[in-house]
Task: structure prediction
Amino acid sequence: MSQMSLLFLLLFSLSCLFALSSAAKSTRVFTLMAGFGTHGYHHPRRCDPQPVEAFAPVRASHLAARGAFVGPPGSTTGWAYPGFVLTVTIEHTCRIIVSIDHQEQTGVGIVRQGFGQLLFVCPSCTRWRRNLYVKDGVLACRRCNRLDYSSRHRHRSDAARAVNLATKVRHRLGADSAPFGPLPPRPGHHGSARVYDRLVARLAALESRALMAFADTLAAVERRARKRKRLR
Ligand SMILES: [Zn+2]
Result:
């Protein structure tokens, strides 16, 4: 493959990736990805296929602001969340008993930090958490319920991540968001020019990283194609 055709292929791939990343942003699809090195096999996911955004958070501050933790010991209140009902019974000022859909009761500690911030003590791992989540009728923190943010499962490959970060830098520069597109002129003001130079240097590093990652990927594809040819 000649150098010109390889460069054209790289630029075309980057443009396709940019278009795909824009589409993914607009639809917010939670996707599974397989790397080139896995022969199409998906690595087993250690987290729930649903992102944390799909679960309604049980916020300590939200409940406290609505008076869930105020009252004599033994007082009970019910709170309707999307998909479940949370029943809160006050044990004392630093501990409540909760049950999901009137099922098994669980004790949950409450930590009061400075500036009136409230945190839950996760019933499973005892870490201090701002939010707890209900999954399969169990109240626990994000980590114990194996929930992950959807953003951590998009743009996982190095090239895609570099293109995504480069697009953000281009947005800050007020430039065309397509990779390798033209940049606006350098501003005359000393402070703005310094910021411009910093962003342009970062953009150049990101776009060259994306190119190198694509070159590696293409080389891997070519190697695999040659190997297949030899085996035939
Ligand atoms: Zn936990």
